Amino acid sequence: MTGNRPPENRLDPDGAAVVRSSGSTHNSQPPPVESTSSDGSFGVNLEPVLLRACHGRLSNVTWFRTDWQRGGALTGYATFRDDGGDDRPAVVKLPIPPIERLWLSRLQDANGVVPVLYAHGDALNGYDMAWVVMERLAHGPLGSAWGGREFDLLTDAAGRFYQAATEFPVDQPPPQRNWQQVFELSRKNVKRHGLRQEQRWTKALKQSHRKLKQWQRIWDDRNVDHWCHGDLHLGNAMTRHPAPQGPALLLDFALTHPGHWLEDAVYFEHLYWSRRDALGSRRLCRQIAHERKRLGLAVDKDWPRLAEVKRALLAMSTPAMLHLDGDPRHVEAALHVLEAEGGSR
């Protein structure tokens, strides 16, 4: 699921590549979801420039496009030669949002939060174009093969990210959202798309609108003095070890932004509103709060109330976001959440 991206950051103004070595072990990885020669033409055309930027250390690049990539973004499997002369399996991504490159670079010295970054830059062939060559992880994304441990591993990885991110001051405002506009779009979409339980949706939205200013005031008053991953879910975590082992490493920092950790936690949780049985007895927001406390990070005393408000706002947004997640089971589960938080039942 995507949203409004925060302002993009630039790292190296001159566009020079940064090359580093690694002692990571050789890995294998499942094949790409989609792969065609026509999709790879963009990467093939830039490949000679990329090879020069990596000072001849990059080789055997095979380009592909996965089913979740949009626009002209490409990924490639490749080999990267480290300082010791050993060839390492690698992943090439280009172009990427500069903020993703920024955070992959920032977190290299953290405790196993992200894959090893072998090379990166913010320009190719004279064009602004962020790119990275990084460690190819052997296992994942996290999923049912981990037997439930995938949730614990992601919670642990999120905590390590929050801890590492404290080293970097928040230097920009958080993204803003017009919740009144979101409400209006949700209300229109309930009728436009003929949602199941249309009458219940109409009633729940009417009830929620009465509380919207209060919810927005509570949400706007939250602390926004730390960094959020912005897209925290199992598909953005992999590991160097076979299931059910960890630790997990995080991927995809394109939506990283200032805010409150509950933005990540409630987003992660809401993906299972219609599949609560997958979580067992886990309560993801509480689990992430405990992880933050364990690491000595700030946790507001009133975070459960703030979580309730965020759930209500996210549930209210569901009809407005049908283009991203219109699964009927999820939509109905969101209705139950909105009814509970909005007091329409």
List its salient traits.
345 residues, alpha+beta, Phosphorylase Kinase, domain 1, Aminoglycoside 3'-phosphotransferase, Chain: A, domain 2, 2 domains, 9 helices, 10 strands, 37% helix, globular
Question: How would you describe the overall organization of this protein?
Answer:
This protein has 345 residues and is of the alpha+beta class. The protein folds into two domains: 18-135, 2-Layer Sandwich (Phosphorylase Kinase, domain 1); 144-342, Aminoglycoside 3'-phosphotransferase, Chain: A, domain 2, CATH 3.90.1200. The chain contains nine helices and ten strands. The strands form three sheets. Strands 1-5-6-4-3-2 form a six-stranded antiparallel beta sheet, sandwiched between helices. A two-stranded antiparallel sheet has the order 7-10. The chain has a two-stranded antiparallel ribbon with strand order 8-9.
Topology:
Layout: E1 18-19, H1 41-53, E2 58-64, E3 74-81, E4 87-96, H2 98-106, E5 117-124, E6 127-135, H3 149-165, H4 179-192, H5 198-220, E7 226-228, E8 237-239, E9 248-250, E10 257-259, H6 261-270, H7 284-294, H8 303-317, H9 328-342
Antiparallel strand pairs: 1-5, 2-3, 3-4, 4-6, 5-6, 7-10, 8-9
